[in-house]
Specification:
Length: about 325
Amino acid sequence: MNETLEIRCELLVENQRSMCKSFMLEHSLTNAVVAAAFAEKDQQLDVDQLRSARKLLKERKGVFSEFRSYNELMVSAKMALSADPEDYLEKAIEVYDRFQKGKILGSSYRVLAAVSIVDQGRYSDTDRIIDKTNELLKGMKKEHPFLTSDEDTCFAVLLAMTDKKVEDILTELEEAYQIVKKKFAFHDNAAYSLAQVITAYEGNVQEKCERAIALFNAFKEKGAKYGKEYELASLGALIDIDAEVDEIVSEVIEVADHLKGKKGFGVLDMGKDTKLMFGTMLVSGAYMSGEKANASSISGEIGRVVALQTAILITMMMIMTTTAIASSSH
C-alpha cells in the first residue's frame, strides 16, 4: 500500500472509530460515510465541530425536513468541512428549494444533488445545472420508465455538471447501458447506474465500458467478487486511472482487507461488497493526490468529482433504501 493510500486508510479507520464512539446510536454506514467525507479531505474528524454544525442544521430545519433524517449527519459533516458552515447550509437549502420548484413531495436524493452542486463551487450556476439535470431525467425516464427513479438525480446532477450536451449525454448513456447490461444480467438498475458514472467521463464509450468490465472480472479472479447491486456503480470511479487493472484491483482488495475487523467495519456493520466499495473510494482518491496524482489520466474536474463522491453518494442511497425497506416491513 503506497504512503498516500495508507495514510487515508488509517484516517478513515480513526475517523470511524471516533464516529462510533460519539454517535453510537447512528447507523454504522452513516458513521462510515461521515468518516469518509473527512478522510477524503485528509482531515481527522473533529467531533465538536461536527456537533456544532449539526446543532446549526437542527435550528434551521425541522425534524421532518429532508435535510434531517437520512441526510442529517452527512450534511452536518459537509458543513463542518466548509469554511463557513452557516453559508454552506444556506446555499444548500437554496439549491434544494430550486430543485423542488413545481414539486409537491420532498426528496432526500435532491438534497444530495444540491450538496453536490455546492461542494463543487457551482452555486452561481445552479439554475443551469438544475435545468440540465431535469432535462436528463426526463430523457432517461422516456427511454427507461421503469429504471429511472428519483434516486437517479444523484448521478444525473454529476452528468449535468459536465460540458457535454444533454443529447450527447443521453446517447452515450444508452450506448453504455446496452453494453454493460449484457455483463450484468438481472441487475438492470445497477447496470444503469454504472452506465451513468461511466458517461460522466470523457473517452470512447466502448473502451470505458470494457475497462469497467475488466475491473469487475479482475476482482472475481482474485477471489473478491464485486457487488452487483448499489456497489456496482462505484466501479466507474476506477475506469480512468492510469494504471494496470490488476494493480488497481489489488490495491482496493488490500484496503478492504485492512478495514476488516476494525471498529465500524465488522461483519455486523457492513458486508464484503461495501468494504470493497470503500476501498475503491480510497484508491481512486489516492490517484487524485499525493505521489500518484500525475499518474492519473482523469479528464477534467468532473472526473475528480465522480471519483471522490461516488462511494459517498452510493452509501447514502443504500442507507435510504435499506431503512425504507426495514420500516415498511414493520
